[in-house]
Amino acid sequence: TIQQAVRKTQLKIAQAIQEGNWRRVKRLQRMLTYSFYGRCLAVRRVTENRGRKTPGVDGETWGSPQAKLRAVGSLSKQRGYRPKPLRRVWIPKPGKLEERPLGIPTMLDRAMQALHLQALEPVIESTSDPKSYGFRPDRSTADAMVELFHLLSPQTAPVWILEGDIKGFFDNINHEWLCRNVPMDTKVLRKWLKAGVIDRRQLMATEAGTPQGGIISP
């Protein structure tokens, strides 16, 4: 299946990381982002998730088999790829009068993000803190609770828990820091970060922050 083919390449990426062969990691990442299987799986992901009927600024959705097939072909044209601005929508925060912004990419930009995420995930999963549970595949709140139980149940466990929150974190994160530290095609990443946002029919530049709502961002 296409999922097994993508998984096989992802395992090769993880193995190359364990060997410290970063040149091979980058080669395999590039191979995956251009592969037919990777492109098919990316299109399937964005056409089967909950937001598949929510269009971006171009008003397009991929409801027909013909549209999905054209999309697979479009994902191979990465050299001249230019993401469109995000469509910003405001949704209320639960139990509060405040609203939080969501950035809705076009279907093509969502699929391109899903495609590059396939190449990025094995790197992140191989190098991230094993006790980190947020926004990671096959990890849940229940897993975090089990970890807390193991940490706090011994008699010698800490007696204090510090809960913190960084206000406006996603709205203010530095683009240059992301480009230096996220192990993926920097040119593509920079294009996403600088794509801009259309909010109430006005185009606004994005000089900092990463939008909430995209496949490759929380």
UniProtKB/TrEMBL annotation:
Domain Reverse transcriptase: 72-218
Residue intervals passing through the bilayer: none
Record has Transmembrane helix as a keyword: no
Transferase listed as a keyword: yes
Pfam families in alphabetical order: RVT_1, RVT_N
One Gene Ontology MF term: RNA-directed DNA polymerase activity
Keywords: Nucleotidyltransferase, RNA-directed DNA polymerase, Transferase
CDD domains in UniProt: RT_G2_intron
Family: Belongs to the bacterial reverse transcriptase family.
Protein name (Swiss-Prot/TrEMBL): Reverse transcriptase N-terminal domain-containing protein
Organism: Ectopseudomonas oleovorans (Pseudomonas oleovorans)
Organism ancestry: Bacteria, Pseudomonadati, Pseudomonadota, Gammaproteobacteria, Pseudomonadales
